[in-house]
């Protein structure tokens, strides 16, 4: 489905009856958690959507692999776009399941949210989500936003932390996905929390070839990347520290419509979350980005290796 088709479907989809959005933390990795009063069912299969970057696509195919293994028919619609498209699509019925990240999702739903600890964020998410959606138990793997500079830029401007950027207001260019310009974990938060103002914001991509290429060429000074991106270490880039905790924790968490959240789905996704580590996720990203492997093939090979599928 292309973006135009997806957006059209948002207006045509029937609304979902309101149900309570309940969730549990990593201590509930048996997948049972708290069930909704409506009782979802995955018997008709479900559709998994993913954002437009490598890792989220890998996660989407991992979800599909473990669900297919327990008899739940899945369809993956990868690379649909940003959260601003995916959340309405999930609410409207165009997709049923989405790999998400605790802190980023919470700040999208509630920009003023103060929770930073994993359990607190999970509870805050349950309160902030629309009644027809819920987060399932979060997993071991975590991937946070990072703001990185080249070693040469760090030395030239004396950059160690995000607070140091303020000393050079109006001089530096930041590159990131377009939506980061309006996000708290982005240009808005950098100004509000650290008083940082950039010379220019260049709309590029999410920790992808555009933003990383621009950083290498010197077209931008600061890049918004993901901590699981192997190019950070490979290129010797400096991730600026975050002394005021602008960037929240980002454990991977399934976001699902109540209509599909039955015990079969819960248990399968919780089993994956209890196995997939940050190191694993970083390696899977590398295989796609560096080895140019297909994300679906990478996901299914990993699921087989870990005994999650036969």
Automatic annotation (TrEMBL):
Signal peptide limits: 1-20
Q: Where is the ABC-type glycine betaine transport system substrate-binding domain?
A: 46-304
The highest taxon in the source lineage is Bacteria
**Family matches, as Pfam families:** OpuAC (PF04069)
Alphabetized, the UniProt keywords read:
Signal
Q: Can the keyword Signal be found in this entry's annotation? A: yes
Known InterPro entries for this protein?
ABC_Gly_betaine_transp_sub-bd
Q: Which SUPFAM superfamilies match?
A: Periplasmic binding protein-like II
The protein depicted here goes by the name ABC transporter substrate-binding protein
């Amino acid at each position: 489905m292309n973006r135009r088709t997806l957006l059209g479907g948002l207006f045509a989809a029937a609304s979902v009856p309101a149900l309570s959005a309940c969730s549990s933390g990593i201590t509930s990795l048996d997948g049972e958690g708290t069930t909704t009063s409506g009782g979802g069912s995955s018997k008709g299969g479900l559709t998994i959507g993913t954002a437009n970057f490598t890792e989220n696509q890998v996660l989407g195919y991992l979800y599909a692999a473990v669900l297919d293994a327990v008899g739940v028919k899945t369809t993956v619609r990868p690379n649909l776009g940003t959260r601003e498209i995916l959340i309405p699509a999930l609410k409207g019925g165009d997709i049923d399941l989405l790999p998400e990240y605790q802190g980023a999702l919470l700040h999208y739903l509630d920009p003023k949210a103060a929770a930073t600890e994993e359990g607190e964020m999970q509870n805050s998410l349950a309160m902030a989500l629309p009644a027809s959606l819920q987060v399932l138990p979060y997993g071991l793997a975590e991937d946070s936003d990072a703001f990185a500079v080249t070693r040469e830029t760090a030395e030239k401007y004396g950059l160690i932390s995000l607070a140091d950027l303020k000393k050079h207001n109006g001089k530096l260019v930041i590159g990131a996905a377009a939506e980061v310009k309006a996000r708290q974990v982005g240009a808005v938060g950098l100004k509000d929390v650290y008083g940082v103002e950039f010379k220019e914001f260049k709309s590029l991509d999410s920790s992808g070839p555009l933003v990383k290429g621009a950083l290498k060429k010197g077209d931008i000074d600061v890049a918004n990347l993901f901590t699981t991106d192997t190019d950070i270490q490979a290129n010797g880039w400096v991730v600026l520290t975050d002394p005021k905790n602008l960037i929240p924790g980002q454990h991977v968490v399934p976001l699902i419509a109540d209509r599909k959240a039955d015990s079969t789905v819960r248990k399968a996704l919780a089993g994956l979350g209890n196995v997939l580590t940050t190191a694993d996720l970083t390696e899977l990203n590398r295989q796609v980005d560096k080895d140019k492997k297909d994300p679906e093939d990478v996901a299914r090979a990993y699921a087989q290796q870990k005994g999650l599928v036969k």
